[in-house]
């Protein structure tokens, strides 16, 4: 896989991380509002050092599974595609976050749609999935706009900040046809 550079609109690019992304990534990622909807392994507080270590780890691999979301010329979030192992290697979980300053502008809907289509080819996948908490309405909407379907309610499947929560399973398959309007509807 060569360098990734997917333009998602005049202001937004999904691309391979660079070492200089560490400072803006930490600035945008250091947020309880973001962390509360992600796995505990997402750093909190998110320091520049944690960002630099994360980026260095990615750049040291032959096949990065996580990409920067660049908005107005600087990294403002991330999107990852993590293939499973063994017999689950044809499935991958997609995960994503964006700095609060940019929420509600259609950026993540465009980014998830842009990454999902080529990710099947990049990683040899048949299925992409995501597990948003039920309370995370914005994430569910992002997935629906990017061609994913809700296929299950996973009751009491996760614990965050001591609270057991329900999550949804969203899936998109390699042969899914996404309406052009949904995939690239708004160009942030
Ligand atoms: C979830 C997140 C990625 C959304 O990014 P974004 O760029 O603001 O998303 P978009 O603007 O593309 O789309 C958000 C959609 O959700 C809708 N929405 C916002 N809040 C909502 C809510 N509480 N309930 C339902 N829908 C909501 C918006 O109206 C929009 O839909 P529309 O385009 O039909 O109007 C961002 O809020 C984030 O990073 N959150 C923290 C991390 C996270 O939750 N990651 C996903 C884990 S599964």
Structural description of this entry:
By secondary structure, the chain is of the alpha+beta class. The chain has one domain (5-176): 3-Layer(aba) Sandwich (Aminopeptidase), CATH 3.40.630.30. It has helices at residues 22-29, 32-35, 48-59, 107-123, 137-145, 180-184; strands at residues 5-7, 12-15, 66-71, 74-83, 91-98, 127-130, 149-160, 163-173. The protein has an 8-stranded mixed sheet, with helices on both faces. The structure holds coenzyme A.
Classified in CATH, the superfamily is Gcn5-related N-acetyltransferase (GNAT)
- What structural class is derived from the secondary structure elements? alpha+beta
What's the overall geometry? globular
Terminal CA distance reads 26 Å
Global mean pLDDT: 94
Write the element-wise H/E pattern from the N-terminal end onward: EEHHHEEEHEHEEH
Radius of gyration: 16 Å
Give the strand order of the largest sheet, numbering strands 1, 2, ... along the chain.
Answer: 1-2-3-4-5-6-8-7
SSE arrangement:
Elements: E1 5-7, E2 12-15, H1 22-29, H2 32-35, H3 48-59, E3 66-71, E4 74-83, E5 91-98, H4 107-123, E6 127-130, H5 137-145, E7 149-160, E8 163-173, H6 180-184
Parallel strand pairs: 5-6
Antiparallel strand pairs: 1-2, 2-3, 3-4, 4-5, 6-8, 7-8
Helix pairs in contact: 1-3, 4-5
Key attributes of the depicted protein:
188 residues; alpha+beta; Aminopeptidase; binds coenzyme A
